[in-house]
Each structure stands twice: as C-alpha cells, then as structure tokens.
Specification:
It is a single chain. By secondary structure, the protein is α+β, with helices and mostly antiparallel strands. Among the domains are: 104 residues, no CATH class; 85 residues, no CATH class. It has 10 helices and 11 strands. The protein has a 6-stranded antiparallel beta sheet, sandwiched between helices. Strands 7-11-8-9-10 form a 5-stranded antiparallel beta sheet. Strand 3 and strand 4 form a beta hairpin. Helix 7 packs antiparallel against helix 10. 33% of the residues are buried.
Length: 317
C-alpha cells in the first residue's frame, strides 16, 4: 500500500469513470498544477505526481508488484474505466512533489517497525551515521507523516494537510505517539527537476486512453454476451422443466394422449419465444382445456389444469 500524507485537498472522492482523464490532465498542465493524484482501485493504489504542470511520475502498486510510467498509466486508465475507483487530488509545493517522487522510486531499508519497540534515538543516529538521503515514514491506519533527510540531516516534515515541507516537527511527530504507530525507513536518490521527463509530452497519453477504453468495451461486450447466453440457457432449462411437468400431469389426469396435447399446444403457444410467461401460459391453458375436453371429462380437465398451475408456481419464476 502506498502511504502518503494527504497534502492540501483539491478534490476528493471523485469517480474517475465519469471523467475524461486525458482532458483532466490537460487542465492540470495548463494550470501548472503541482501535487499528486491518488487512485485507490481494486487492483492496487496508483499515484501520479505533477510538478508545475508536468506529469513527472506514474506508479501503480499492487499485490503482484509495481508498474511505472506508461504501463502504470494504462493500468490506472483500465481500472478507472472499469469503475469502483476513488480519485483524490492533493496540492503540494514543487519541493515536496520532487521529494515524494524520490520517495516513491527509492528503496525500503526498514519496513513496518513498531514505534513502541524501537530505540528512536539510535535509529536517528544510524541515519546520520550512514548519511541516508530519503525519509522516515511514520504512520497508523488513519495518519501518515514523513520526515525528509539529506545525507543524514533532517530537512523538514510533511503531514496531512501540508502543502510544503515544514520545519516544525510537532504535527508529524504526534503521529508517532498514536496507538499502533509504525515506521518505515526509505532511501531515495534525488533527481534534478530538469532531468525528469514529462509523461504528457514524451508519449501519446491519448492513445493509451483510447486503447484502454477499447479494451474495457470489448471486455464488457464479452461479459454481456456471456450473461445473455447464461440467461438463454437458464430459460431453455426452465422451459424444458415446465413442459416435462405439464406432460407428466396431463398423462396422470387424461392418459397418454395428454402428452401429445401438451407438446402440440406448448409449441403453438411459445413458438419463437424463449420465456415462459404467465401471459403465455394463460393462452396455453385455454388451448389445452379446449383440446382436452374432446378426450376427457370436465372434472379431469379442471383437476389437470389446477395441478399444472400449482406445479408451475412451485418451479419458481
């Protein structure tokens, strides 16, 4: 799971299946947006980082691994179009956006260490001794805070609601005091802003979006066809059961000729139809009643029809 403080919310709880994401990217680029977009999907968590309107990072982390750049964008597009995705957008300072980029593409040195079991002073001393560049991530299920380091020296703090790297530790360190707090230590290699490619201009994001839409459309068409076939098979099975029930009841009340009469009237009533409906059965009962009275008495015919109606109700609709 990608754990990041929320930053300053721009928009939250968006359904990305209802928006044209490349058009949204273009608006963010025109406004020189700096911050990150978080996509929480059934497949995993996607993070897109913008710096001064440039899309400098795309990452999708799932249980099966991580995807970056255009592979991540394609996967995020597919998930978004499929639905059940929540998009949140947070504003950051350029310095913080670059720090988050370095963090996401760095290495995990220590993970999920319980704060109450750690010697924090010794850990900080180790970071200084090893001249670690990266961050200390402190988190619970509800809160996340980051402490950035450069060559073992703390640079500042980032917590929920921040837009810039802050110099005071009060809000960030308060997370460490919460029940169940844990710590990750992450090493990162800082990249120069000018060295980071803009994914919006170095590749055809529109084509990736169009391909994702086509693939999702094809998947839906396949699902619809399969669902339609399943319905047809269920209805065919139901129709067969109804007809067999009626033939059995007819044989019981008016003899073997009842089987022939049921087959004949059933075919007339439901020719070209896959559904056995109440309306159709009303016509069937009338035809069968008329034909049966030529070979059986009224009481036998009535008993037969009554049992057929009860039997049909018993099969369920």
């Amino acid at each position: 799971m990608l754990l990041l403080p929320k930053g300053n919310p721009v928009k939250e709880s968006i359904d990305p299946s209802r928006i044209n994401i490349p058009e949204a990217f273009a608006k963010l680029a025109r406004s020189s947006f700096t911050g990150y977009l978080r996509f929480d999907t059934t497949r995993g968590t996607g993070i897109l980082i913008f710096n001064r309107g440039r899309l400098i990072s795309a990452l999708l982390e799932s249980g099966s691994g991580s995807q970056i750049a255009y592979d991540a964008l394609a996967a995020i597009f597919e998930c978004s179009l499929s639905g059940n995705v929540v998009l949140n957008i947070y504003r950051l300072s350029p310095e913080l956006a670059l720090g988050i980029h370095a963090l996401l593409h760095g290495d995990v040195l220590y993970q999920a260490q319980e704060v109450k079991l750690l010697d924090i002073k010794a850990l900080l001393g180790k970071l200084k001794q090893d001249k670690v560049t990266g961050c200390l991530r402190i988190y619970t299920q509800e809160h996340v805070a980051l402490i950035f380091y450069r060559e073992g020296t703390p640079l500042g703090f980032f917590h929920d609601g921040s837009t810039e790297i802050e110099k005071t530790a009060e809000n960030s360190m308060s997370v460490a005091k919460l029940p169940g707090a844990k710590i990750d230590v992450l090493a990162a290699v800082e990249a120069d802003e000018q060295d980071l490619a803009d994914l919006l201009t170095s590749g055809d994001v529109g084509a990736i979006w169009a391909k994702a839409k086509q693939e999702i459309l094809q998947e839906r068409q396949v699902r619809d066809r399969e669902a339609s076939r399943a319905v047809e098979m269920r209805e065919a099975d139901r129709r067969s059961k109804v007809e067999e029930l009626f033939k059995s009841v007819a044989t019981k009340h008016i003899g073997k000729i009842g089987t022939s009469l049921v087959e004949k009237e059933f075919e007339k009533t439901f020719v070209g139809e896959s559904l056995v409906t109440e309306k159709g059965l009303n016509g069937f009962y009338q035809r069968l009643c008329k034909a049966s009275r030529l070979v059986a008495g009224p009481s036998a015919v009535k008993a037969m029809l009554d049992e057929m109606q009860r039997g049909f109700q018993g099969l369920g609709k």
